[in-house]
Amino acid sequence: MQAVILAAGEGKRVRPLTRSRPKVMIPVANHPIIEYVIEALEKNGIREIIVVVGYRKEQVIRFLNQLDVPIEVVIQKKQLGTAHALKCAESHITGDFLLLPGDNYIDAYSIGRIKEIKNAILVKEHPNPSNFGVVLLKDGFVTRIIEKPEHSPSFMVSTGIYSLTRDFFSYISENNVTDAVSLMLTSGEHLKAVIADDWQDAIYPWDILKMNKHLLKNLPEAREGSASRQTTIQGAVRIEKGTTIGPNTVISGPVIIGSDCEIGPNCCIMPNTSLGSRVKVEPFTFIGNSLIMDDTAIGSHSRIIDAVMGQGCRLSDHTTIVTSASLLDIEGTVIKPEFGAVLGDQVTSGPFTIFKNCIVGNNVSVEGGKRVISRILPDDSMVM
Fold first, then answer.
1. Considering the domain boundaries, does residue 209 fall inside one?
2. What is the residue range of 227's domain?
3. 3 state DSSP class of 248
4. Pair (118, 191) in one structural domain
């Protein structure tokens, strides 16, 4: 059986994290999201995998070339929707196939439940259905999919994962897969609904924290770096090669720390935290429930909670990230999320900076002096 993974989109609602990378390449628990999708397919014996790339395609192709499983790459030259992306792969599809988004986590068991069924969709209840395609069911079959309704009639949503036949291409007339599915249902075809066991999507950048926490639950332990004898390590903790942990540092898993990091001494790394490679954490710093990407440095006496940080950030000493809730306008939708901070790539801040429920764009510079950042800062801003 073949599988088609759609990995061509940007992920606008996850900005600023997708300015320099497509959403499928955001590292969650130190692995790109698309890697989890490919692993789930491999565990089901599916090795004929087609990946449709587009936005910042070079990054995705470079990553795919490093994998052991052979991947066929198709390029969507213009990002014109999911159905258009699938259409780009039509000539490579020879029979029944699975269709999957590359920016969602899905477990192998759920794929196993759907792969042998012709014309089926994985569905899952979600507390915020209006962010998704809402699925209406009758006797286990889909009667209608309503895309992102303002007032949802159901909590059951589409995961975007389908088992389809080649006949599906005859229903593609618009740019989105949901439109093609609606046309297929109108023509009298049936689409069976299968409940997904474990599915995770990140609609907004702070949702990355939930996905990170979820994926760290099954973290395989490893201690390849070096830790001082005075270091305390509890729970599931993975420390990659070249990383050093200073004395009197406490690490409580689940935690993953990438290669060539410098941690401590006298630091606390609390559960549900992912540190990328070459991350430097200076003494007397506390980090918890956070995802910190490669090459970021955090100064001493800092407190980092509920934060997502892009690559190459430089935060000076006495940085504080405060969790709270406030109204934010994301792509025209006003919501009230609760989190600490989302920082894009190459953010720098001076001593005693406080980040509070804010989204800070790429290449933003904040001077020190007890400044409180509590709003959305666009890319390349300077706070003086």
1. no
2. 216-383
3. coil
4. yes
How far apart, in whole angstroms, are the C-alpha atoms of residue 384 and residue 202?
A: 33
Considering the domain architecture, whether residues 180 and 45 belong to the same structural domain is answered as yes
Cβ neighbors of 285 (< 8 A, separation 6 or more) are 267, 268, 298, 299, 300, 301, 302, 303, 304
* Other Cβ atoms closer than 10 A to 73: 17
Is the dihedral angle over the CA atoms 79, 80, 83, 88 positive or is it negative? negative
| Residue 311 pLDDT | 96
pLDDT tens readout for residues 174-205: 788 998 999 999 888 999 999 999 999 988 99
Instruction: Among 154, 180, 203, give the residue marking a domain's end.
Output: 203
What gap in Å lies between CA 60 and CA 334, rounded to an integer?
31
Q: Where does residue 327 fall: left (phi above 0), alpha (psi -120 to 50 degrees), or beta otherwise?
A: beta
- Which domain CATH number covers 377? 2.160.10.10
Point out the residues of the chain with pLDDT beneath 70. Answer: none
> Is the CA virtual torsion 172, 70, 38, 271 positive or negative?
negative
Q: Are residues 190 and 249 in the same domain?
A: no
d(Cα 59, Cα 148) in Å, to the nearest integer? 30
* pLDDT score, position 173: 85
CA distance 384 to 370: 11
Q: Report pTM.
A: 0.91
At 235-257, the pLDDT tens digits run 999 999 999 999 999 999 899 99
Rounded alpha-carbon distances, angstroms, from residue 135 to 125, 193, 232, 281, 312: 10, 9, 48, 45, 41
Is residue 174 domain-shared with residue 284, that is, in the same domain? no
Q: What was the pLDDT predicted at 210?
A: 94
Q: For residue 115, what is the domain's CATH number?
A: 3.90.550.10
> Which structure tokens are listed for 195?
């409940």
Q: 203, 230, 265 — which closes off a domain?
A: 203
Q: Name the token pair of 188.
A: 């009298």
